[in-house]
Amino acid sequence: MGLLDGKLAVVTGGGSGIGRATARRMTEEGARVAVLDLDGDSAQVVADEIDGLAYEVDVRDAEAVKSAVGDAAAKLGGLHAMFNNAGISTIGRIHELKLDDWHRVVDVNLHGVFHGIRAAVPIMLAGGGGSIVSTSSISGTNPAAGESAYSAAKYAVIALTKNAAIEYGPTIRVNAVAPGYIHTAMTNPIVEHFGAHSDHIVGITPAGRIGEPEDVADVVVFLSSDLARFVTGQTLIVDGGLALRGSVVDGVLDTLTGERA
Length: 261
Ligand SMILES: NC(=O)c1ccc[n+]([C@@H]2O[C@H](COP(=O)([O-])OP(=O)(O)OC[C@H]3O[C@@H](n4cnc5c(N)ncnc54)[C@H](O)[C@@H]3O)[C@@H](O)[C@H]2O)c1
Description:
This protein is α/β, with parallel strands linked by helices.
């Protein structure tokens, strides 16, 4: 028997990394999953693999998210789990950051989560319940220089999670995950170009390694399942203990610019 037997789920950013791993793990645990991604091809590849549904959607577009989530719920026969996970990052000092970059990062990482919650709630309320999980980051709890847009958005996801948990309990549980340094397309450039930085991170991580997408996916499955029936409004840090020591991008800005502010 799976942890999500008979459950119907939507995963945003499901075409890669943490979202792809979660779509796979949810399916292994018995769920039917709809994969939403800006990259329609990668969404389709994952959907084909898990016998799910694929939607090419930009989470910045509230109407597109609502329409895709509604269509998926109609085709799958309901909605029990929503994973708002699509995200992007940028790096630069606050006064040098391009306004477009600030708006794009906040739009995807915060407004995208807001749009996902708005789309899922009416369907879950009508269906009698559900679980929403969103992806924050340890950058939302331990910001580093150069991460302003990303950190602000990820911190806001934690606040939005608490807010939604209060508004929609007891029918809907709402939680977040805050991954640490996870090996995905997002962090590949750091691994490739800042090898010494990665070695440093591994060295200060109590778990002694960089995380894999499945490390986060398993926690999302837990939060989406009845095992977490008394857990709501929480942000679960999934970082092998790294946040006990500091931020993932500590020092990256200095390395990039060759100077300290
Ligand atoms: N990798 C890490 O170390 C790490 C750490 C903390 C938090 N996170 C967060 O985890 C989440 C997943 O990131 P990942 O590491 O798996 O990266 P990833 O790049 O592998 O996956 C992100 C996915 O989101 C999709 N996406 C981007 N913009 C989108 C948009 N506007 N609309 C719909 N889909 C969009 C991408 O196409 C991609 O498939 C993000 O929210 C990220 O901020 C990652």
